[in-house]
Amino acid sequence: MLRRLLKTIKTAREPEDVKRARNAAEIVARGAALTLNHVELDYRRLPAFISTKLVGYLHGYSSVICTSWAVQDPGIAIGATMFAIESIFPERREFFIELLSAESLKSAAFVEGGEGGLVGR
């Protein structure tokens, strides 16, 4: 999973903001994947707020990394979140990426997860 992400970074001629998002996603995906690999969850049966909270956590974690790199564009943290989702959940990426909608970003579960991502690092 992470090798594929790294290979894409090395071989693609992408804009700098996309490269930064992928680099942040690599860090986020590695940390989250290690945790999630120890938990066997059927994501289809989880209550929606848990999935939203998880995506919020990934976004919060991405935001911390982008802030530490002095990245000003908030879209890069969203891009990093999307790349991390694609890396961690390749078979469920559409489901999780839909949770980055404007409505979900304002939900209490997303905000709570995001705060966890900010504090947890």
Q: Topology, pairings included?
A:
Blueprint: H1 2-11, H2 16-36, H3 48-68, H4 74-88, H5 93-98, H6 102-105, H7 108-119
Q: Separation of termini?
A: 22 Å
Multimeric status of the protein: single chain
- Strand % is under 5%
Helix-strand sequence: HHHHHHH
Report on the biggest sheet. none
User: If you average the pLDDT, what whole number results?
Assistant: 80
Q: Count the strands?
A: 0
Tally of structural domains? 1
The number of helical elements comes to: 7
Helix content: over 70%
Indicate the overall shape.
globular
Low-confidence stretches: none
Radius of gyration: 14 Å
Given helix and strand content, the structural type is mainly alpha
3D structure, described in words:
This protein is mainly α. The protein has one domain. Helix content is 74%, strand content 0%. The chain is built from seven helices and no strands. It has helices at 2-11, 16-36, 48-68, 74-88, 93-98, 102-105, 108-119. It is globular and about 40 Å long. The two termini are 22 Å apart.
Q: Short summary of the structure?
A:
By secondary structure, this protein is mainly alpha-helical. Helix content is 74%, strand content 0%.
Q: Keywords for this structure?
A:
single chain; 121 residues; mainly alpha; 7 helices; 0% strand
